[in-house]
Amino acid sequence: MKTFTASSALALLAGLGLASAALADGEFAGITIDAKLIGGQQYEALYARIAEWEAKTGAKVNIVSQKNHFELDKEFKADIASGSITWCVGSNHSSFASQYPALYTDLTPLLPAETVAGFVGANIAAATLDGKLVMLPRAQFDVSALYYQKSLYADPAKAEAFKAEYGYDLAVPETWDQVRDQAVFFSDPPNFYGTQYAGKEEGITGRFYELVVANGGVMFNDDFSPGFNSDAGKQSLQWFVDLYKAGAVPPGTTNYLWDDLGNGFASGTIALNLDWPGWSGFFNDPAASKASGNVGVAPAPKGAAGVRTGWSGFHGFSVTEACANKEAAASLVDFLTNEESQILESSAGPLPTRTAVWDKVIADAAADPYKAEVLAAFQETAKTAFPVPKTPYWIEATNLIYPELQAAILGDKTVDEALQSASDAVDGLMRENGVY
Amino acid sequence: MYRLRLPPWLVLLTPAFVVLLMVIAIPLVLSFYSSFTAFQLTRPETITRWNGSFNYKKALSDVYFWSAFGRTLLLVTVALNLEMLLGLGLALMVAKVTRGQRLLRTMMMFPMMFSPILVGFQFKFIFNDNVGLLNNALQSLGLTDIAIPWLVDGHLAFIAIVTAEVWTSTSVFAILILAGLFAIPQDPVEAARVDGCTPWQTFRYVTLPFLMPFIYIAMAIRSLDVARAYDIVQVMTAGGPARRTELLWTLIGRTGYVDARMGYANAMGYIAILLSIVFTVYFFRKLTTARTSLGMGD
Q1: Peptide bond preceding B111: is omega within 30 degrees of 0, i.e. cis?
Q2: Is the Cβ pair A73, B242 closer than 8 Å?
């Protein structure tokens, strides 16, 4: 595409120190790009930049829908079903992307190789489905690290009591077994809990998935038959069950999703909390969090196989196959994910997906010890992060798995029974859809 | 040249037929047809993949579908009876008020003005085990020292959902019963008093029979509403945990829109509609009987 010549990109790099693709003045004059974008206050700063792209290219962007990803997902499915894909650019997410195999076009021929090369390789690999680069990741990379209350580790009486009970020194946990021990030790229900976990929908299935991997197992075999009904799977589910039975998590945790967890840790009633990077500022904000000034962040602990948990995902932008102006749409997607855009978004806390922006945010955080600690923990976790399995039936499989995980946690079924039921249900799903 | 002349009544009715066809018949036929296919929202071509009665057999042999069916039936029964009793009490009290009744009637309708989604969030917060109002109040009053898992325990979660439903819709009964109270002829009531009936006997044998048609109309309307309960439950528990609060439409909604299996979801929907039909027929029969006993029947 003429817009994205290597020379123009290099010229801009030289001028701005940023790898932003060049835009020719008025190149897309008269074109209107309809877009369906994820909505929310935290995303508005980026969307405010759209006016710059419009002024430069002469095109107009018409945002026809702004909703959260779950609502957008339903809308996209309705659009596909009714054949009314009249829009060009859509927000996408690595956890949802594989559900729409024909909706989005391959961005590779629409973008110069240098643009794609500027992203973290693992993110581009996760954004590539069946050889198609279906989205460009924005600075909304998610992987979870361990937030903890620092004061718990500075109390000599606690350290002594812990060592007497568990036989090893009380320190920020490096393994999930240590998390379990410490969570039980710190708990004092109903006023204080050792930890908490997302308890429903994709939240708990994702947490289970990453623990299965950390314990040396697989969620799906190579043919996408369920692989989680294994020793690693049982060991992983037992971890959730043990914590619930011990009263080390709030009794309502099986109904919790991300907001409940974030607000729970900010209420100062949770000792250890595996959570996303977007919460780091909130947790340390004195106006919002009782834990502020007492928050430590460590890389995600490791499982029995010596592997860190690292279920990751990221937001991105895609261009529809039905779009009449793919070049203009790709230009917009490129603009919204270029270095300037990523610097803008990551300045508010979210993690970038471009290598150069990672370097910049780490350098900028040198003067802020908390921010530096946050970035170091997340960068370390990101090194071994992994996306959700690339099957269009991931979300549907999570809906079959999570009630069974809940049943084991709440004691309605044994771990063996729950995993067998979940495995049978997912096996049925895959067979019904002709996966094998 | 021959010119087709339609009768005037048909010409006049044609626009109505066309609109009904567009907004009711076509979606119904399409959804009924798709319930016999492997239709997936994300794969439009699957709408032509006929799979006969597979979806229906699958739903009818699915234990989780039937437990959701049974739970929905229980919710309709409990919520309707509670709403009727509370609505009746509320209407009787408001009918006695002589000053400010109009204001009270308006206030009574406030819960109906809230979006069900908002009601769901409101009660989700009230019943939250950790930071919820109810547990904090109970703990502060020294009535308990544990975090009661309102939205986790199957029985407690059912009570929480019924509470939200009753709070938002009791006024439907109250308003309709109040309308009934205003419509009651005063002669039989006064005659009963003159004959020495106690207030309870007057209510039981004179007022209540007059109110029954109104109560059955409210029952019919609300049974359709509760049998389709979705928003409040979806927000409060999403049918969980471990399917403990799964209702027909949380199951069907998730199957259709999250799992994108619209063919299967439509099959479950058509079976679920039977529940609404049974309740509607039952309440209309009761309505006819009540009207007949008052000499209002055909």
Answers
A1: no
A2: no
**Cβ-based contacts of B146 with chain A (< 8 Å):** 189-190
Which residue in B152, B240, B261 is closest to A403 by CB distance? B240
Of B137, B152, B165, B173, which is closest to residue B237 (Cα–Cα)? B152
Under 8 Å between Cβ of B218 and B173: yes
pLDDT digits (tens, 9 = 90+) for A17-41: 344 456 767 889 999 999 999 988 7
- Torsion, Cα A287 A288 A291 A294, to 10 degrees, reads -50
Nearest to A80 among B42, B150, B257 (CB): B42
Distance from A343 to chain B by nearest Cα, in Å? 34
Residues of A in contact with B71 (CB under 8 A): none
The CA distance from A105 to A211, in Å, is 33
Q: Which domains does chain A have, with CATH numbers?
A: 2-141+312-376 (3.40.190.10), 145-311+393-432 (3.40.190.10)
In this prediction, residue A9 carries a pLDDT of: 39
Rg of the Cα atoms in chain A: 23
pLDDT band at A14 (very low <50, low <70, confident <90, very high): very low
Domain ranges (residues) in chain B: 59-293
Contact A252 B150 (CB under 8 A): yes
Between A83, A392, A409, which is nearest B44 by CB?
A: A83
Which of the four CATH numbers 2.40.50.140, 2.10.25.10, 1.10.3720.10, 1.10.1140.10 does domain B59-293 have? 1.10.3720.10
Q: Per-residue pLDDT tens for B225-284? A: 888 889 999 999 989 799 999 999 999 999 998 888 999 999 999 999 888 888 889 988
Q: Which two tokens stand for residue B272?
A: 């679920």
The fraction of chain A above a pLDDT of 90, given in percent, is 72
Q: Is the dihedral of CA B179, B75, B281, B255 positive or negative?
A: positive
Q: What is the ipTM of this complex?
A: 0.74
Which residues of B fall within a CB distance of 8 Å from A100?
Answer: 42
**B-chain residue closest to A198, CA distance:** B241
**Mean per-residue pLDDT, A70-98:** 90
Helical ranges in A316-411 per DSSP H? 326-336, 339-346, 355-364, 369-382, 394-409
Using a CB-CB cut-off of 8 Å, the residues of chain A touching B257 are 74, 77
**What is d(CA A294, CA B6) in angstroms, rounded to the nearest whole number?**
82
